[in-house]
Design brief:
Number of helices: 15
Largest sheet: 4 strands, mixed
Structural class: mainly alpha
Distance between the termini: 59 Å
Strand content: under 5%
Strand order of the largest sheet: 1-2-4-3
Helix content: over 70%
Number of domains: 2
Length: 410
């Protein structure tokens, strides 16, 4: 491999981002306060608070170890000529450029997947289990892995083949790749609630009662076309709680984790619903989709400009250029760029969360219900109540809970 500008840029970018992440993770661990913040004294006892801090510490150390392993494996594979070796191996099958490219990408994907399996097992059955979160059996975990792999092949393989074909045969392939990827992503988001999510979880219509009545009253008050409310068996995998919306147009649905319903009052659940409706009413979903589409377009444009860049191939020690290797090397090159875009996305996301909270407080007329819900979620999920500001800036898609509570109080 050649020590050209691309080589030094990639090495410097990966090392700098890793060092920054390592440093702010240490800052975040240092920011853990031994005293329960005043705003949470009514719900966190000393033992639960100490448990939440220990959970943050262990997850942080695990994250550092995981990132160290990832960067060491990547640099080792790269500097030992792994990309050239793998390219020689797949070309030896003489399967044609598209199938050869699919084998190349598939082998990298499978190797990365096998590398992460022990980490996922330790995270799920050791860390999460030790803190009472994991409810999965090994059989459920295996089933999830098998389904995810099968879906990855069924969905990912045809898309990869199409992208490879476009860049090898069609003028302005970056533009067509952008269009195809956008249409496919929107289609997948539309069919996922009906055909993909039920493969992993059961969704039962919410039974008649006060909760259903209040949810539909709130939807009507907000002029929100809510078609269905479902209870999802989240407790099958974890004791953590959540809720989410799916669907487009007049086909909007809400799914509540059964753990959420069990641990929250009706006013709290209605406040959570109002918060989610706020995202739609404030056009956050449309803005997010638009930004995602534009970002994808930018990535495809840059890919088109850099396709089969000789100097990039030289940096990775690969002799023959190819479309499939261009996709892989460009993906590696864009990881630091993705980190920067992620920071911008998190800033916007945190702003949207404040706006959705404000909407919920306004439409319910009961900010205390949202405050109570946030406190209970923090306790149930053992959230870090005193995160470091730098860590929040780089990693948090939601504002720290204490900031959300202060904003609601105002």
């Amino acid at each position: 491999m050649q020590f050209n500008a691309w080589f030094f840029f990639i090495v410097a970018a990966f090392v700098i981002f890793w060092k920054v992440d390592f440093f702010i993770t240490l800052l975040n661990m240092k920011s853990l306060s031994p005293e329960v913040p005043d705003a949470f004294r009514d719900i966190f006892d000393a033992d639960t608070y100490a448990k939440s801090q220990e959970y943050t510490r262990i997850r942080s150390v695990f994250g550092i170890g995981k990132s160290v392993l990832s960067i060491v494996v990547f640099f080792t594979f790269w500097w030992l000529g792994g990309f050239q070796w793998l390219d020689n191996w797949v070309r030896g099958f003489e399967c044609g450029p598209i199938l050869t490219g699919m084998i190349f990408v598939g082998v990298l994907f499978l190797a990365n997947y096998l590398l992460t399996i022990p980490l996922d097992l330790y995270s799920t059955f050791k860390i999460e289990a030790d803190f009472g979160f994991n409810k999965m059996t090994f059989g459920t975990w295996m089933g999830d892995q098998a389904k995810a792999l099968i879906l990855g092949v069924i969905i990912g393989a045809p898309m990869l083949a199409l992208i490879l074909w476009l860049f090898q045969t069609v003028p302005n392939a970056w533009l067509w790749g952008w269009v195809v990827t956008t249409v496919f992503s929107l289609f997948l988001a539309y069919v996922s609630p009906t055909y993909i999510m039920p493969l992993f979880n059961k969704f039962e219509p919410i039974g008649n009662g006060p909760l259903k009545d209040e949810i539909h009253k709130m939807a009507e008050k907000c002029d929100f076309p809510l078609k269905e409310v479902s209870i999802m068996d989240g407790s099958k995998r974890s004791s953590k709680s959540n809720a989410f919306f799916t669907g487009f147009g007049n086909n909007k649905r809400i799914a509540l984790f059964d753990t959420l319903v069990e641990k929250h009052t009706v006013p709290e659940l209605v406040a959570v619903l109002a918060h989610e409706i706020g995202h739609f009413k404030e056009k956050h979903i449309v803005k997010g989709i638009t930004i995602s589409i534009l970002t994808t377009g930018l990535m495809f444009f840059l890919l088109g400009r850099m396709m089969e860049s000789r100097s990039l191939f030289d940096a990775f020690g690969v002799k023959e250029t190819s479309v499939y290797l261009s996709l892989v090397l460009f993906g590696i090159l864009m990881q630091p760029v993705g980190e920067l875009l992620g920071i911008g996305g998190n800033i916007l996301s945190r702003k949207h969360e404040f706006e959705a909270d404000a909407y919920a407080a306004k439409v319910t007329g009961d900010p205390d219900a949202m405050v109570s819900a946030l406190k209970q979620l923090s306790k149930d999920n053992l959230s870090n109540l005193t995160p470091d500001p730098a860590y929040v800036f780089l990693n948090y898609s939601h504002p720290p809970v204490i900031q959300r509570i202060e904003a609601l109080r105002e």
